[in-house]
Prior knowledge:
single chain; 20 helices; 24% strand; 550 residues; alpha+beta; four-stranded mixed β-sheet
Amino acid sequence: MEEEKAVKSTVLALPAAAVCDLLSIGVCPRCIFRNFGVRGDVYSSCVLSIASLSSWLKPSVNPVELPKFEENTGSMKVKDSCHSIEEKISREETCIVCLGVLQMLCVDQNQELTTCKGKINNMFEAAVAILKTLQTEGHQFDSFCLEVSIPSVVLVRDRALWLYIKKKYGSENWFQDVMVTGCLSVKEALKLSLTKSLEDLLGRNSDMNSSFRIALFYKHMEASLELDFVHGSKENNLKRRKTGESIGIHNGNLAAIDAARTTANAGESFAAIQRTLNSMSEDDFAKKYECPPNKVHEPCQITSLCYRTSIYIGGRYLKYSRNVSQTCWMIDDERMGEASVEEIIGNAILPYLRGDKYKFHAAGREDIDVRMLGSGRPFLVEVLNARVIPTNADISEMETKVNNSKDGIVKVRELKRVGNDAWNLMREGEAEKQKQYAAVVWISRTLTDEDFKRISEIKELEIEQKTPIRVLHRRSPLVRKRLIHWMKAESIKGSSQYFLLHLCTQAGTYIKEFVHGDLGRTYPNVGSLLGCVAEILQLDVTDVKMDCFD
């Protein structure tokens, strides 16, 4: 009763004649509230309907002004073989502005009516349908964020209705109050309508920063054709969204999430249309578009899904084999090396989070024949659409699983869950980091004490490196300046032409080329510094000095 009183009070505070006029031309109650700047929990009320508004307004207006309305009942998914889908939709007229979005009068991709009418709370039933999706997916979450994507044509219809209201009621005192209050968008109204029901049903709070997302995507192919006059505007070169393509979303399918993100990111088109509308005068708009907008025969199609934004697991990896690439390396459908760091770590982590897939990111890379020793190389495993948030115990098990797999050729340390900013921190630190190496070097003459002294005295040596010949097929032909911070030569017992070279360099230095010179493309190099031919036989990374998420 208290809820009904609150809604009734809100309705009676509005100009009755204008409200009845809007109802009669096909505007739904929530769109009427939006245009009068109403805010609050009234949007989620189960008593908010055309019938209730008509009943409450009867004493205030001439009966002729009231729209005719017949109460209907139904269920969330109406399945009646005796009637077509069009007949089912016609039982409740689709709003000329929101296209059924705020009425929960929408059709899913199986052409089933997803609405409840009459005595049942539409918004609650919509929340129940979302709950079924969550149960199917099996997500664990402690909060949620509601995402909404609506057809761009709603912006056009919103403006058309507003101009109709302004032209007809602009001289009324209440209109100036509405101008000050401002209208709510369909997205804002839908979130106000659904959020409370979702919170009550799920037992979780809504949080715009939550990593768990409940996404609703609406499209209306017929009405979207009305955008032609906007796209034809000379003031803006718009990127037109393809309205004739199905999103093709099926819960639990990673392609669905990618499509959903693409659709959400297509907001550039939405924003561009908004800019175009803002640039058009009211008179120019009214000449090109009907005010108020025409009625539509069908509501929007709706696709819903739930997903979690990426979860990152970070740490450092060590690689003890000279036959393991960092990522899966294929040439002509043939694998290079016995395994990859990416697969060994990623395949161990993914099952714990029950994600759809993972992406591997590292702070630089070493060649397949180079070992990664010392403290290890920082890395991130990005898990997409994880159903489970890992506990500390899970992460400890992941670390053990990696370290015991593949005869220990790859190990991890300091494994932990890190924040969304970890990727950026790693990329920023990558450009500034220093790396230490140990290389077995051969020279074309006998080593002398002077050679060892000369190498050890070099500090902050600047070199120039043209893109190495071995990577020219995939890297731009550039000249890069790099610093060799220090070097130290260590003799190898029983050898007069081999020695162990320890060095610390700037990130991005090609070590192999610094040793042999790459046919003069790297200068100076170890060979030129010693005045002889130098070749590198083995190389290890012994330290990556970088604090990104330690």
